[in-house]
Write a structure and sequence with these properties.
The structure is a homohexamer.
Chain A (H helix, E strand, L loop, with lengths): L2 H6 L6 H16 L5 H6 L5 E8 L3 E2 L3 H11 L4 E4 L6 E2 L4 E8 H31 L6 E3 L9 H10 L13 E3 L1 H7 L2 H11 L6 E5 L2 H8 L10 E5 L3 H11 L4 E5 L7 H5 L5 E3 L2 H4 L6 E5 L1
Parallel strand pairs in A: 6-11, 7-8, 8-9, 9-10, 10-11
Antiparallel strand pairs in A: 1-5, 1-12, 2-4, 3-5
Helix pairs in contact in A: 2-4, 2-5, 4-5, 5-6, 7-8, 9-10
């Protein structure tokens, strides 16, 4: 991942959008009685200095979640970032240092880690895919296969790992899939119908299952009637290469389906522009991070 | 664990608790303009018959989420379960059949699948751990390392996979960990303080890092002052065996730390009562399920 | 705009998105004690048959809001639409007929009308602009100058009036304006920076204030680096014509600024593709509609 | 508008009630990904000095909304009011000056303006009506024909324009209209029933359609059984004058129906106490205000 | 108060306003895991027939809360009222009979009873005060000393017990108290200021601490400038009688302060119009009601 | 109440959980127009110094609610506690002194007092029960008969009064009652079924109605299968004593049913461990506290 690609990614969502997620997570964990262990074992005025420490190496994302979780329980807490989201760290790296009311820090710990570990896991897995395709023109894309309630955070983590974002929801772009094609009576008819009805600020992508469908999509005239992006769904490597040749750069091509770390490089080398990987958000293991008392 | 014990596990949360999660997920996906692809390509009155089909084998959990997602967009939709949560299915199995307004079905599809695949992934991974420890006394436990906002669902999925639930939050039991021990000046002092302050309906668990700490915990007198559960954190197999021998069934023992599918059986064979596995909820890959038009 | 193009506009948002708006409006009007006039003067079991009647002619939008307001207070109420959203009606036209608990109907009346009148006002004003540009290639666009909380409804009303939607929010397309240009050091630099950073599913529009800026925007190479849409802000008619000639159909052109019913036709005749009109949503008078007892 | 009338108006709602409206509006505009244009084109630490400037003359209302919108995205932003709500300004007047994080300022701009322009539009239209009736005893009243979700703000804007508020909702006063009269079997019976049932802290108004109904309302005995206010609905000028003479100051009289800027003075000169104007809130064009970089 | 006056009291709030309170109460009680006892001990499909039975005699209020609590967990449940809110029942009376899913019924039981017992307690205590003043002109009033979150329900219960409602909140009438008088420089000045600023649909009450203050309040001229209601705060019986004589029916008089069941009749016999009793809502013991399986 | 018992109680819930309750209460009281009396009679910049003063003696709980109510309306207000929650005060004691914007202080007053008086009432009644059982082994317990929406606060107040908390909800412990016993076919069967299905961190209590049922509960083998707590429901004093003798300290015993201040000491002297008293939260009169201007 080159530096400018990383810089080019969209920035973190504003605290205004993250804070409600963090507070809901705290409410879920605190329940009705709050942290009864800390209430029993920690003096109300005790202080805790502690560090968020990576137990394994990876790419960090979500430090704002940890900061906001702590601030929600102790508005006067100190939270000093030692790395920034998007940085690659080694096992043992100190990510942030905190100094806060001890009860507040312990009550916020699990929520802070649940978000930070999960988002860093997404960023780390994304970075692994991005590394695999280094030197090709292909970029790694996420999908809408995100955790319900965490989409804005997980898509942010994908960007921090060097990936790009596909649609954020059903409403910000058109993606014509097999059911829509069937309902319209063909790829071409579906594209035409979408072009006619879509707003001028909305991009249109169509999923094709064969080279014939690809040709039908490319054949829309005038060229402005063509889809902006064509998704090549479950194409083999030969078919992908032929699709790239057929398209000749006139439309953005996205490869999709059955992509894993072992297969992604070969797919990238076919010359497609984007490769979408649902696993980035639906199956990323966490990055193990802990909170160590200082 | 015998089959009827598994059936006996706590049931699904009531729709009253699941429905807000599903509706929030739909709102996240629909955004402001809704499913603009379906609006463009599908007639408003078109119908869709479709089936939720497992692409891989595993244990199913979360069919209620799919049902509620569809009902939220088409209250008159038909949703017929063909299997029940907790069942193990083969790849290709039909999980449920639906008949609904086509736009509603397509708009609900991703949310339904995001929840169903994720929860079935948790159930499937849990079942794999449970299978590993078959024949031992050990039960597989989850942790609080759950996805923010989805805890009640993920813990339900663990139960459906044959696992047991640890605490649901910071407020429903006391779990004394290293920071609390340090604050109180020792394992014994921490237990005493918790016993003194905890309500009589609240169980107390203490995490110990060594056999010495275990002995200190077991030495509380009268025996009613002992913790209800002792967590043996990152003990080796020999230490676990010694802990089991020392404890002699007087207190429930939970092994924790660094457990994976390769190591869990050996741990179970030491004789501990419970083995907690964070990965059940923080790193389970999804179970691939799709919605196929009929 | 031909009739089928109007029919092709994006459909109404699902009830799932409208219902919370309607219920919040009812809560605002009912306050704590509810409709104390109806409670004092109407028997609890009295029935009311009534009709929503247009007091003036116009284009109707928002019947679903009226239906949902009534249903929220009397789930068994009958609501029969006599026209559909998007239809042009004469003064005196019956829009819908209801039969419901009388208290519920009277308590829902003002909320139903506040939404229905307001949205029909937006649709009617939009239709007036659309009629002015009939026969030209120009389409009428809305803006983000909508009523806080009602954006999805007002943009729907614009579509029902025959207009098209611009962005739904800050997140679904890029629109580079003067402040962004200044921050980047020029139109071209701003476009380049946005192209580099924007996702591939995101369209980019740039606002230009002069023909020089237009030329700079058109000069990006390769052509895929050009903006998708160029907004000609406050251009005179001659400048608009020159811009259309310069652009030669390579990029979509939107005219913006100081558009009113008197000026819109001349602007449309310059050959621009879109004309955006903030007044559609920020200054539309309501369409007068009442609820008459039968 | 005389100074003491303005002073007499109820003050602005507390921030506690405005802030949720502002934050919901920001969430609506930011969507999931936030302001992607600012993220692409503005450096994260850039600052922006800017001024809210009136593009046309009018009466200002809603500066608190602009302040809170900015503060929600940049809690450290500076917001200095140069005028106060209720002041009449000329085109070009600087209303407030801000200094803030540039991304935050640009992301808050549209929400701030949408509220400020709309409320200032209401205040300005109200002031125009108030000016028309200057020197008469009549005061200008709003109605419940407000924008759903914005009632407390729009009624505040009416006060800032020199108008008075009618009911805030269905629960804070009784207003007997034609349907209630019909249900009770006559104006007198309806008044009696309302008097009998209403709380002692609740005022009662009745709408009458004729002088006969007015006489029936005035005839209630003892006088404490009369309505507090009588609304003369769609009375001609002669009938209004006769109503004023008949009533002789014993009950407050409100004229209603078909009032516009051209007709309001003549109505006021009949001697009525209040004139209610739905257009103040349902059809006020915005006051054009912009945010100019300094 | 005659029976028909009691029937005339304002009716129950619509379900739309009660249901969110009931659902929030259920969420509070169900927590994360729901009713784990019923899950463990009751078969999922078991049915339960049961009756809500009064353990002591009193006035019933809040049956709608019980109905909605049950419906929230079992939409198909049967709930048959045997008495109506406002009825006086003996110990042992069956209030309602239900037939429902057994788990749902048991999970809803406590919330249903918590609301029903509390509201019936308020109604019963109110009825006791009302009975004490029978035959006098005095009516019993509540205050704003209600349980946070339950005001609309508790004020409804007061009406069901035969009492009348004072203000529902700070916004629906003006009540000038000692701090306001001090800020304005005297009772008369405070009344004048309130009259000048209050809307015409808003009643004004002033609290006076002495006969001199009462005289000052009554002396406002013209008479329409007088307060609508005067509260005689902590007046002795002689002072109350003198206040009634002085006022001579020109203004409504409310006695307040130190009222209990022993003292209320003597106060009522002084001739005041209203007597407000904070204890109705802040200190009413519940009416004991249980749910008995049939 | 001995000092260490008080110290042992769980601490106050974090502000994060209290603040939403306080803000909802303020919204309920402010309604739409806010405090119109203060707006009319108090200058916007006026200041108020005032003290919360106990009108009667008792145990204080809920000062945080008063603090948060004031801070919600005036973030810069000064709130100085003069006593702490849990302290017993005499009539006339100053609990806290405030200095704030006068309008904010007056608008927050009623909400602050409604919570503070109610919670102090709960604490005071609890302390009275606790005092009655001084010198016995019995502790006073609350129940789930709390005010909907205020459970966490009322249970906190019970602790401040020296009592202990029973379950916080249906999900944090198992309590087998008569309906569950009936469904399972007996006390023993119900216990067995609950033991089999409950999580290892969940305590189990069973309600018994007779000594025979008690014997059945105690007879579960091995002893770890016995319930953790047995509730003796409506046992007479002799039966309680016999139950204590039978149980011989092997299981915690809770007496329940028909407990009042007159009977509680005799019950305590039977040797039971806990006595639960629904009246603590369902029928506690408030402690009278006022806000006096300084």
């Amino acid at each position: 991942m080159t530096p400018q690609v990383q810089r080019a990614a969209l920035e973190a969502p504003p605290d205004l959008l993250i804070d409600p997620i963090v507070r809901a997570a705290l409410a879920e964990d605190l329940g009705r009685a709050g942290d009864i262990t800390a209430q029993a074992c920690i003096d109300p005025d005790a202080r805790l200095g502690a560090a968020f420490v990576a137990r394994k190496g990876g790419v960090i994302a979500g430090l704002a979640c940890a900061r906001l979780a702590l601030a929600a329980l102790d508005p006067a807490a100190v939270f000093q970032e030692r790395v920034q989201d998007g940085e690659t760290v080694e096992a043992g790296a100190v990510l942030a240092v905190i100094e806060a009311n001890a009860r507040a820090a312990l009550a916020a710990e699990r929520v802070a880690l649940n978000l930070l570990c999960r988002l860093s896991g997404v960023a780390t897995l994304t970075a692994a895919y991005v590394a695999q395709v280094a030197g090709t023109r292909a970029r790694i894309l996420d999908t809408r296969k995100t955790t319900p309630g965490l989409r804005i955070l997980e898509k942010y983590a994908v960007r921090r790992g060097g990936g790009s974002n596909h649609r954020f929801g059903l409403d910000d772009a058109i993606l014509i899939k097999d059911n829509h094609v069937a309902a319209c009576g063909g790829v071409g008819a579906a594209i035409d119908r979408a072009r006619e009805r879509a707003g001028h600020m909305v991009k249109i992508e169509v999923e094709v299952d064969s080279l014939d469908q690809l040709r039908e999509a490319l054949a829309r005239r005038p060229t402005i009637r063509r889809p902006d992006v064509i998704m090549l769904d479950n194409f083999g490597l030969d078919a992908l290469r032929e699709a790239v040749a057929l398209t000749a750069g006139q439309v953005i091509l996205e490869a999709s389906g059955g992509v894993d770390l072992a297969s992604v490089r070969a797919i990238a080398e076919t010359g497609v522009d984007y490769i979408s990987v649902g696993a980035l958000t639906h199956s990323a293991p966490i990055l193990d991070i802990g909170l160590d008392a200082l």
